[in-house]
Specification:
Elements (H helix, E strand, L loop, with lengths): L10 E3 L3 H10 L4 E5 L8 H4 L4 E2 L8 H11 L6 H9 L1 H11 L13 E2 L9 E2 L6 H14 L4 E5 L1 E9 L2 E9 L2 E6 L3 E3 L20 H9 L3 E2 L4 E8 L11 H5 L3 E4 L17 H13 L4 E4 L8 H4 L1 H9 L9 E10 L2 E3 L11 E3 L4 E2 L11 H18 L24 H7 L6 H15 L6 H16 L22 E3 L1 H8 L15 E2 L1
Parallel strand pairs: 1-2, 1-10, 2-6, 10-17, 16-18
Antiparallel strand pairs: 3-5, 4-5, 7-8, 8-9, 11-16, 11-19, 12-15, 13-14, 14-15, 19-20
Length: 517
């Protein structure tokens, strides 16, 4: 089969769980799945230690799951979208079991349910203890490779979406050093998050928001970009991405202490299982104050640690730490992006022919702060809805695509120091202004830093526009919550216009466009 045989098929960009699930749901329609690495490699999906939130316990219900999600989202969740997702959770688990995902079971044969922060019930379904993402990717990759209607292009990177007459017309990609153009009127972005823009991150370094750059340059709306979730407990060391110490460890009773052994969250409501933004800020402030922070599981797990969390135990031992007898050094790291391409209930963006699924999409589920283990759930259930919508789209019309310049391979290394200073756990207007001034010229250029800079610029403008503190977005100069705030949308043109409105002395706030989502 040649590239010419693939024209007209739906194209899915991304080899993680969202992309794999969407491709499987589209079968038997012929589709093209494009992954810049081998399927499952260099994705956050494989690294996911947390599980899937589902109200399966006898003391639980979708209503309770909904309430917990809305509370964590701090006023910015879409209630209807959220209810739809949580009510689909049990069916999603059943579907994954039929595909062959080996979830953990209790001795009585029921699914083993774990507890994570801000959940009022034990409702986290795991596979392999702390290897849920790895197990799901294994099963889904095997299923994709066995599905004849799915053509997988690995080692291929999409550099631009091609747009004609205000709708998707194709993709421009590079593989084996050669450019290729694929005509299609249906593209699904499943490219993951933006953690690779930060020095401290649990995401693959190549996850700089590729899908956001593609969507923005094609003209699609983006929303809630300012909301970046920092995981409170990444293994504090030199490895990148930073190994994650799952929240489930705290769910089993592990506590956060400083170098003196003092438990600094003892008086915080919820303690170590308070919402992630609360815990992350507390840990970050300890570091800023010159303290080290450790996760201590010796009393609650001790010798049982490796049996309950085998992957984390291996990571710790590789770093010279035995979590059974030693506390684990931790620090916050960029982990998950609540914002993304603005989509409707079926995953459709504002650009005809473009859908988004998984972390790259803003569905309204997460609001200002993701509830733990809702992200894998969202990717799984949204993939089915996206596939149904893609199948129902108008048939392909062949177009003569205009020649396009192939951009260089993106590189975020120049951007990370800027983003890490300005868009971290605590932000302020002055630092955000400086960042915008630095980023706008890079984003407007044509070198390897342009796309990462563009994504960082959209986040910066969104963070400047939100003059309040809510969920994961904390402004030191606006520490209070504004009860009137809503989700905000931005396009590329609006972002560039706002960024170029800076003067040498101050930011012209009135120049910031704002549209309610």
């Amino acid at each position: 089969m040649t590239i010419n045989d693939l024209h007209g098929r739906p194209v899915i960009i991304g080899g993680g769980i969202a992309g794999l699930m969407t491709a499987l749901h589209l079968a038997p329609e012929p589709v093209v799945l494009i992954s810049k690495a081998t399927l499952g490699d260099e994705t956050s999906s494989t690294l996911a230690q947390g599980g899937i939130a589902a109200s399966l316990g006898s003391d639980d219900s979708p209503d309770l799951h909904l309430a917990d999600t809305l509370a964590a989202g701090d006023g910015l969740c879409d209630d209807i979208a959220t209810r739809r997702v949580v009510e689909a959770a049990s069916r999603a688990i059943e579907h994954l079991e039929r595909l062959g995902v080996a979830f953990d079971h209790a001795p009585d044969g029921t699914l083993l349910l774990g507890l994570e922060a801000a959940h009022s019930r034990r409702r986290i379904v795991h596979a392999g203890g702390d290897g849920t993402g790895r197990e799901m990717v294994r099963v889904l990759t095997a299923a994709v490779r066995q599905t004849s209607s799915i053509t997988v292009l690995e080692g291929v990177e999409v550099r631009r979406l091609l747009v004609e007459d205000g709708e998707i017309a194709g993709v421009l990609a590079v593989g084996n050093g050669e450019a290729m153009t694929l005509s299609t009127n249906r593209v699904v972005l499943a490219t993951g998050g933006i953690g690779g823009l930060f020095d401290h991150t649990t995401n693959p370094l190549g996850s700089f928001g590729q899908g956001l750059a593609l969507a923005a340059r094609a003209g699609a709306d983006l929303s809630d970009l300012e909301f970046v979730q920092f995981h409170p407990t990444a293994l504090d060391g030199s490895l990148r991405p930073m190994p994650l110490i799952s929240e489930a460890v705290r769910g089993e009773g592990a506590v956060l202490v400083d170098e003196r052994g003092d438990r600094f969250l003892a008086d915080t409501p919820g303690g170590e299982l308070a919402p992630r933004d609360v815990v992350a800020r507390a840990v970050w402030r300890q570091h800023v104050s010159g303290h080290r922070v450790f996760l201590d599981a010796r009393r609650c797990l001790g010798s049982r640690f490796a049996g309950r969390f085998p992957a984390i135990a291996l990571l710790c031992r590789a770093a010279g730490i035995d979590p059974a007898v030693e506390p684990i050094p931790v620090r916050p790291a960029a982990h998950y992006h609540m914002g993304g391409v603005a989509v409707d209930a079926e995953g459709r963006s504002s650009l005809r022919g473009l859908w988004a699924c998984g972390e790259v999409a803003r569905t309204g589920l997460h609001g200002a702060n993701r509830l733990a283990s809702n992200s894998l759930l969202e990717a799984i259930v949204s993939a089915a809805w996206v596939a149904t919508s893609v199948t129902a789209a108008p048939p392909f019309r062949s177009r003569r695509l205009k020649p396009a310049i192939v951009p260089p391979r993106p590189d975020a290394s120049r951007i990370r120091p800027i983003v890490s200073r300005a868009l971290g756990i605590e932000r302020d207007g002055e630092m955000l202004c400086k960042a915008a001034k630095s980023l706008v010229s890079i984003a407007s250029g044509h070198d390897a830093g342009a796309d990462p800079a563009l994504v960082a610029l959209t986040l910066t403008i969104a963070a400047l526009r939100r003059e309040e503190s809510r969920g994961s977005h904390f402004r030191a100069d606006f520490p209070r919550r504004d009860g009137r705030s809503q989700s905000l949308r931005l396009t590329l043109d609006e972002t560039i216009k706002a960024a170029t409105a800076f003067s040498d002395t101050a930011f012209a706030a009135e120049a910031l466009p704002v549209r309610r989502a």
